[in-house]
Amino acid sequence: MDAGSVTVTATGLGDYTGCTVQRTYLIAPAPLEVVTDGASKPYDGTPLTAGGTLSGLVGGETATLSTTGSQTEVGSSPNTYELLWDGTAKESNYQVAAQRLGTLTVEKAKATEPDGPSDPDRNDGTGAGTEKDGATPQSDRATAPKVAGTQTSATSRHAGSRPGAATVPPLGDEGAQPLTFAGAAAALASLGAVLLAPWKRAKTAR
C-alpha cells in the first residue's frame, strides 16, 4: 500500500447488520536518510568529488543516490546530491527526513623548491673552484707561447754611417718560463735600443 490517505469502511453483520463505519487513515512516507561524504586535497586543476549513502528504503525497494557536488578551484562547497527513482521504490512513498552533507575543500597547492643550478663559486672537491671578482682560476690562465732560442738580426743604414748588423737578444729558449707581459715589453725595449744604436752613433759623429 502506498503512502497517502486511505479510507476504510466496515459493514456490520448479524446483530450489527445495517451498521456501517468508515475510518480514514493517513499512511506517511517512509523516512530516508542521506549522507554525503566530504573530502579535501591540494589544488591540481581537476574536480574534487565524493560519494554518499542512502538508507531507509523498505521491503527491498531500490533507488539511486547520485552525488553532484564538485570543487575545482581553491575554496569549499557542499557535496550536494540527487535521488534517482530508477528502481522499484516510488518517490511518493518516501521522504528525506535527515541529510548530512559533506564539504569538498580544495586547498592551495604547496610551493615546491625547484632544483636550481649548482653554485658556480662552490668548490667541487677537486680544488678547482671558481675564483670571484673576475679572477681566472689558475688552471685556466693562458700562457704565452714559447719562442725558439734563436737570435734576431736587423740591419740599419744611415747617411754617413756604415751598414751594421745589430743582434737582438734571444726572446726565449726551449724550456723557459712562459713569456709574460712585462717580459715582452722588456724584449721590445731592448730591440728598439739595438735598432736605434747606429742612428745615435751617426748623429753623435756629425
UniProtKB/TrEMBL annotation:
Origin superkingdom:
Bacteria
Looking up InterPro entries in the UniProt record yields: MBG_2 (IPR041286)
- Report which residue ranges the record marks as coiled coil: none
Q: Where is this region: Disordered?
A: 106-177
Q: Where is the composition biased (Basic and acidic residues)?
A: 107-134
The MBG domain is annotated at 32-105
Compositional bias annotation for Polar residues: 149-158
Q: Which UniProt keywords apply?
A: Membrane, Transmembrane, Transmembrane helix
Q: Where are the transmembrane segments?
A: 179-199
Q: Name one Pfam family in it.
A: MBG_2
Name assigned to this protein: MBG domain-containing protein
Species the sequence originates in: Kribbibacterium absianum
